C-alpha cells in the first residue's frame, strides 16, 4: 500500500500553481459522449479520476491521449452504450455519463456507482429526474438500464440540487428537441463551467449558476474540434490555503474567480489568517494563534463540503472549541478517528464534530479513508511534531495533481513511498 511520509514543523512559503478543476473536467468529459469530434482539455490535471473518465470514453469506442498541453479526446467512434463495470467502479463520477449516452443512443447501461466512506452515494435523484424526462430505468445485477426511446424535453424539478443529477439532466436536455427547464439545479462553479463548455459547442443553455436552467435542445452529435481550459480547482486552492494556515506560512496563487473561494477565505479570516488580493493573485499570511470557529458545509454558494475535512484538521489546533456540521455528506467524519490518533480532541455530537483545539498535534500512522480526508491528514501532518505516515495515499493523488512536488516546493518535508 502506498504511503505519504511527512515531518511536520516547516512553514509553507511561496507560490503554488492551482490546476484546472477535477470536478469541472469530469462532467465536461462525460458530456463529450453526446458530441462528435475532438477536444483538447487544456492543462487537464494528470490525476486518476480524470484518467478513469478518459478510459470510459475509450471503452465506449472513443480515444484519448495526454499530450504536453492537456488531454486530447476523440468521440467520433463511440459505438457502445454500455460502460465497462470494472472501470466505472473506480470513480463515482462514472455515473455522469448517463445523460450523454441517452442523448447519443437513447439508451444507457451503467453500473451502480460504488459507495465510499463519505456515504452510500444513492442515485434516486438521478433516476427521478430521468423519469421526468420520460426515461424509464431499472436496476438489474448491479447495473442501471435506461430506456430513452420516449425521452422528451420539458420541465423537471430536482428534489435536491445534486451536482451529478444536474450534470445528467443538462447532458440529456441539451440534445432533446424543444425547450427544457431544470428547477432546483446545482449552482456549483463546475456546473457553470460545463454549461460554458457546451454553449461553446453550440448548445443553448441559459441560467447557469442559478437554480433554474433554461435549455433549448440542439441535435446530438454536433461536429466539434475545440480547445477548452476548465476553471481552476477551488478545492485545491482552498486545500493549500488550509495547509499554509496550519503551518503559520504564507503562500500566493493565481485565481481568477475569487467568489468561488470566498466562503473558505472568509472562514480563514474569521480564524485569524490574513488574506489579500492583488488583481488575480491571492496572498495568504498566517501566523500562530488561530481562533476556533463554527462551520456549516452545504450546497453552493455555501461553504463547500469538500473543504469540511481540512477545516476539521485546522480546528484541531485552533484555540477554543470549533463546531463543524456537514449538511451534504452527513457522515463525512470518518477522518476524525485518524486525527484523534494524532492527538486531536474531537467528539461527534448529534451529527456535528465538536473539536477542542490543542497546541500541537503529534505524528502518527494514519489511514486516508477518502480523497478529502487524505488531504486533511496531510494538513494535520504538516503541523504535527515528528513523523506522520498516511497509508492509502493513492486516494489523495486521485484528486490533487502533483501534490508532493507542489508541497516540497513550498518547503514541506514530504515524500511518497510506493
Ligand atoms: C459531486 O459529487 C462532487 N464530485 C463531490 O466531490 C462533491 O462533494 C459533491 O458533488 C457535492 O458538492 C464530482 O463532481 C465528481 P451530489 P456528487 O449528487 O454529484 C445525495 C470530491 O471530493 N444524493 O451533489 O456525487 C448524496 O448522497 C467529491 O471531489 C442523493 O441522495 O454529489 C449527498 O448526500 C466528493 N441521491 C448529496 O446528495 C442522488 O441521487 C450531494 O450529492 C444523488 C445525491
Strands, total number: 23
In the sheet with the most strands, the strands line up as 21-22-1-23
Overall radius of gyration: 21 Å
What is the typical, i.e. mean, pLDDT?
Answer: 95
Largest sheet: 4 strands, mixed
**Beta-strand share of residues:** 25-35%
Shape: globular
Helix/sheet category: alpha+beta
Bound molecules: ligand EPZ
> How many angstroms separate the termini?
7 Å
Helix share bin: 25-40%
Oligomerization: single chain
Q: Number of helical runs?
A: 14
Q: Indicate the low-confidence ranges by residue numbers.
A: none
What do you see in this structure?
With 418 residues, the chain is an alpha+beta fold. It is 31% helix and 26% strand. It is built from 14 helices and 23 strands. The protein has a four-stranded mixed β-sheet with strand order 21-22-1-23. It has a four-stranded mixed β-sheet with strand order 2-14-16-15, with helices on one face. Strands 4-5-3-13 form a four-stranded mixed β-sheet, covered by helices on one side. Strand 17, helix 10 and strand 18 (321-326) form a beta-alpha-beta unit. Helix 1 runs parallel beside helix 2, helix 4 runs parallel beside helix 6 and helix 5 packs parallel to helix 6. The longest helix has 13 residues, at 234-246. It is globular. It starts with a strand and ends with a strand. The model has no long low-confidence stretch (mean pLDDT 95).
Q: Helices, strands, pairings?
A:
Blueprint: E1 3-7, E2 13-15, H1 22-31, E3 36-42, H2 48-59, E4 63-67, E5 70-74, H3 85-88, H4 98-105, E6 107-111, H5 124-132, E7 136-140, E8 143-147, E9 155-157, H6 163-173, E10 179-183, H7 189-200, E11 204-206, E12 212-216, E13 223-228, H8 234-246, E14 250-254, H9 262-271, E15 274-278, E16 281-285, E17 294-297, H10 308-315, E18 321-326, H11 335-341, E19 345-349, E20 352-356, E21 365-367, H12 371-383, E22 387-391, H13 394-397, H14 403-409, E23 413-417
Parallel strand pairs: 2-14, 3-13, 9-10, 17-18, 21-22
Antiparallel strand pairs: 1-22, 1-23, 3-5, 4-5, 6-8, 7-8, 10-12, 11-12, 14-16, 15-16, 18-20, 19-20
Helix pairs in contact: 1-2, 1-7, 4-6, 5-6, 8-10, 8-12, 10-12
Bound molecules: ligand EPZ.
Ligand EPZ binds at residues 23, 26, 92-93, 119, 121-126, 160, 162-165, 188, 305-306, 328-329, 371-372, 399.
Amino acid at each position: 500500500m502506498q504511503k505519504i511520509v511527512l515531518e511536520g514543523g516547516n512553514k509553507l512559503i511561496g507560490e503554488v500553481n492551482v490546476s484546472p478543476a477535477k470536478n469541472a473536467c469530469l462532467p465536461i468529459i462525460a458530456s463529450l459522449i453526446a458530441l462528435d469530434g475532438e477536444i483538447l482539455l487544456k492543462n487537464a490535471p494528470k490525476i486518476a479520476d480524470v484518467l478513469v473518465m478518459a478510459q470510459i470514453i475509450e471503452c465506449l469506442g472513443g480515444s484519448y491521449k495526454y499530450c504536453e498541453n492537456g488531454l486530447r479526446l476523440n468521440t467520433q467512434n463511440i459505438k457502445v452504450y454500455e460502460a465497462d463495470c470494472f472501470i466505472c467502479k473506480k470513480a463515482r463520477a462514472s455515473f455522469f455519463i448517463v445523460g450523454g449516452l441517452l442523448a447519443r443512443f437513447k439508451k444507457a447501461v451503467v453500473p451502480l456507482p460504488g459507495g465510499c466512506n463519505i456515504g452510500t452515494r444513492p442515485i434516486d435523484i438521478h433516476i427521478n429526474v430521468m423519469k421526468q424526462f420520460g426515461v424509464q430505468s431499472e436496476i438489474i445485477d448491479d447495473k442501471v438500464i435506461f430506456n430513452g426511446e420516449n425521452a422528451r424535453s420539458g420541465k423537471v424539478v430536482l428534489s435536491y440540487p445534486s451536482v451529478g443529477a444536474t450534470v445528467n439532466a443538462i447532458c440529456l436536455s441539451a440534445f432533446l428537441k424543444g425547450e427544457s427547464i431544470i428547477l432546483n439545479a446545482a449552482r456549483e462553479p463546475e456546473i457553470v463551467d460545463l454549461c460554458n463548455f457546451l454553449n461553446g459547442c453550440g448548445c443553448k443553455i441559459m441560467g447557469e449558476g442559478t437554480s433554474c436552467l433554461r435549455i433549448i435542445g440542439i441535435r446530438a452529435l454536433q461536429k466539434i474540434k475545440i480547445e477548452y481550459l476548465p476553471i481552476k480547482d477551488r478545492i485545491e486552492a482552498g486545500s493549500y490555503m488550509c495547509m499554509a494556515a496550519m503551518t503559520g506560512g504564507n503562500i500566493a496563487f493565481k485565481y481568477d474567480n475569487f467568489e468561488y473561494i470566498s466562503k473558505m477565505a472568509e472562514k480563514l479570516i474569521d480564524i485569524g489568517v490574513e488574506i489579500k488580493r492583488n488583481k488575480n493573485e491571492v496572498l495568504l499570511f498566517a501566523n500562530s494563534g488561530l481562533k476556533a470557529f463554527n462551520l456549516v458545509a452545504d450546497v453552493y454558494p455555501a461553504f463547500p463540503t469538500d473543504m469540511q475535512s481540512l477545516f476539521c484538521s485546522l480546528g484541531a489546533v485552533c484555540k477554543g472549541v470549533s463546531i463543524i456540521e456537514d449538511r451534504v455528506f452527513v457522515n463525512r467524519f470518518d477522518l476524525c478517528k485518524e486525527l484523534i490518533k494524532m492527538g486531536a480532541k474531537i467528539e461527534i455530537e448529534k451529527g456535528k464534530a465538536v473539536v477542542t483545539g490543542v497546541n500541537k498535534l503529534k505524528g502518527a500512522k494514519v489511514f486516508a479513508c477518502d480523497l478529502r480526508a487524505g488531504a486533511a491528514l496531510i494538513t494535520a501532518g504538516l503541523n504535527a511534531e515528528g513523523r506522520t505516515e498516511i497509508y492509502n495515499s493513492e486516494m489523495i493523488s486521485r484528486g490533487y495533481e502533483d501534490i508532493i512536488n507542489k508541497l516540497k516546493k513550498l518547503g514541506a518535508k514530504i515524500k511518497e513511498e510506493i
